[in-house]
Structure formats: C-alpha cells, structure tokens
Write a structure and sequence with these properties.
The mean pLDDT is about 90. The chain has helices at about 10-40, 60-85, 90-115, 120-145; strands at about 40, 55. It is mainly alpha-helical. It has a two-stranded parallel ribbon with strand order 1-2. The longest helix is centred in the first third of the chain and has 31 residues, at about 10-40. About 75% of the residues lie in helices and about 5% in strands. The chain starts with 8 loop residues before the first helix and ends with a helix.
Length: about 150
C-alpha cells in the first residue's frame, strides 16, 4: 500500500487527529485575546485605546500564553515524528492509538494548565505522555531506517 494514500488508515488518523491538534493550537491565540479583553490587560502602549485597558501582566493571560508557547514548542515535533513513524508502515492499530493518545494528552494538558488549572502531577502526566510518544516515534523511525 502507498504510504501517502487515502487508503492508508494510519495516515487518515494522522490527518484527522493532527488537524484537531493544529486547530486547538490556533484556538489558543483567540483564548489569549479573549482573556486580554476580559481582564483589560495589554502589553503594548498602542493597544491602550480603551480606558478600561492598561499595560499590565495578568496571571490568567500569562498562563494561557505559556500553554500556547509550549504548544508551539512541542506540537510541530510531534507532527513531524508521527509522519516519520507513518512512513515506516507501523501496525495500524498501535499507530492509530499512539496518535490519538498523544493528541488527547495535549488537549488535556491545555485544560489542566490554562483553562481549569489543576495541581501537579496532572500537567506533568499529560506533557510526558505526548513527549514519550514523540520520542518513541523518532527512535522507532530511526531504527527502521537504519535497520537496527
């Protein structure tokens, strides 16, 4: 079967769940904007056009920004590692579940960090779940490529 074909079940899972993950990452910008407006917290002088706004750091806005930054640091690596993994033509069931679990852990990470903060280890479990899957996919892909 061609790896980059609609008939590839794993590629369909990757496109569906990867698209969901990218969409979630894009939504974070709007969540930041919404909370800036709600809290009246802006960072640039030119943004202070409303008397209710002031230049200030708000902890809720900063928490969302940090979660978004963490997405920008980790989601592209996962998407690339997953694509490398798919090229190796892995077991479809295992690959599909790894992708789903990684994406769900990233969504839960955002929830427990930026939306409804929950104390550790909730955030760490979510973070290390996706990181572990990403590292596994990279190692697996390299092992297949180098015939290890």
């Amino acid at each position: 079967m061609a790896v980059f074909s609609y008939n590839n079940e794993v590629l369909r899972v990757y496109i569906t769940w990867g698209g969901l993950l990218i969409f979630k990452m894009l939504i974070m910008s709007f969540l930041t904007i919404f909370n800036r407006i709600r809290k009246g917290a802006v960072e640039n002088p030119e943004d202070v056009q409303n008397p209710n706004f002031e230049i200030k750091k708000d902890e809720d806005v900063e928490r969302i920004r940090r979660a978004h930054l963490n997405d920008l640091e980790n989601v592209p690596a996962f998407l690339l590692a997953a694509l490398m993994y798919i090229i190796t033509e892995p077991n479809p069931t295992v690959a599909s579940w790894l992708i789903r679990i990684a994406v769900l852990s990233r969504i839960f990470y955002t929830v427990v960090y930026a939306i409804y903060p929950i104390r550790q280890p909730a955030r760490a479990i979510c973070f290390f779940t996706m990181l572990g899957i990403t590292i596994f996919m990279i190692i697996w892909s390299m092992a297949v490529f180098f015939h290890i």
